[in-house]
């Protein structure tokens, strides 16, 4: 193809491509908002009863509770910003106003760099975060001291975590020897004949807690207890959103790169068209003078 044919093609399809890219951009903006809202609304890790425990987990000077909430809020804010930018891109594509496209291209490029950095940092620190979380959870479980929902905030948070996430201990409980052995609850002899708390039993709720009894669960640890460790339960719960975050983040980055190319191409084509029209008018005027 010669230059004229290429410009004709891009002039025809460029605006359409830019519109399609921004519709996709709009959809992925929503895809960033939804996980953030879902974690805040439905995830047991940020439940008000469990949050005090999560806030005792600190990583790099930031506690786990605030980290999770901050990530959720960031997803919602970035998703909203992506939607607004996509609308700006659609306005620019439809109106052909170069000012809109200049602003749009600049903002999208900045968003691309921010998300590239965020995704890189998340992938880089994920394995460190896993090791840190398990080690610190085991340490915090040593502070567990009461099998009830009133005496201690830390113990109450653990008990709600066990019930809400159907887990027990940090590592999976397989018998009477388990993570609770070094907890204040056991070492102070407060546990009596129990080896795991009532909150680890299946079927117990906050309403039935004070009257619930199942010695096969709490004493002999042979049946009727949550077999999954809480580290695995928390990691599974959060990793589902982590996968969404990475997948959507990388896809949005690709779309953003295409959007910048489309915006630059559209603006270039508009300038080419204006220049061509001006040249034709000049030639026409010269012919009329002759």
Automatic annotation (TrEMBL):
Pfam families: Tetraspanin. InterPro entries: Tetraspanin/Peripherin, Tetraspanin_animals, Tetraspanin_EC2_sf. It is found in: Membrane. GO terms for cellular component: membrane. The chain crosses the membrane at residues 20-41, 67-91, 103-123, 241-264. Keywords: Membrane, Transmembrane, Transmembrane helix. Its main location: membrane. It is a multi-pass membrane protein. Belongs to the tetraspanin (TM4SF) family. This is Tetraspanin. It comes from Magallana gigas (Pacific oyster).
């Amino acid at each position: 193809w010669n230059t004229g044919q290429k410009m004709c093609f891009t002039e025809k399809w460029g605006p359409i491509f830019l519109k399609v890219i921004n519709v996709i951009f709009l959809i992925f903006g929503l895809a960033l908002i939804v996980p953030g809202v879902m974690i805040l609304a439905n995830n047991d890790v940020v439940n008000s009863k469990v949050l005090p425990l999560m806030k005792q987990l600190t990583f790099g000077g930031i506690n786990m509770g605030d980290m999770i909430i901050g990530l959720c809020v960031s997803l919602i804010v970035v998703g909203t910003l992506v939607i607004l930018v996509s609308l700006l891109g659609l306005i620019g594509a439809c109106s052909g106003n170069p000012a809109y496209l200049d602003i749009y291209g600049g903002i999208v490029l900045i968003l691309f760099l921010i998300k590239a950095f965020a995704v890189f940092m998340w992938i880089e620190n994920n394995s460190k975060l896993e090791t840190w979380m398990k080690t610190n959870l085991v340490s915090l479980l040593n502070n567990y001291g009461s099998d009830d929902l009133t005496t201690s905030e830390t113990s109450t948070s653990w008990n709600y975590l066990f019930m809400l996430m159907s887990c027990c201990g940090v590592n999976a409980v397989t018998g009477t020897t388990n993570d609770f052995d070094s907890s204040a609850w056991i070492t102070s002899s407060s546990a009596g004949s129990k080896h795991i708390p009532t909150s680890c039993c299946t079927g117990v709720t906050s309403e039935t807690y004070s009257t619930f009894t199942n010695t096969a669960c709490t004493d002999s640890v042979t049946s009727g207890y949550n077999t999954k460790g809480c580290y695995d339960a928390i990691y599974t719960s959060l990793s589902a959103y982590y996968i969404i975050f990475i997948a959507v983040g990388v896809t949005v980055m690709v779309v953003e790169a295409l959007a910048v190319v489309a915006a630059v191409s559209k603006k270039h084509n508009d300038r080419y068209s204006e220049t061509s029209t001006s040249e034709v008018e000049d030639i026409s005027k010269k012919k009329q003078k002759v």
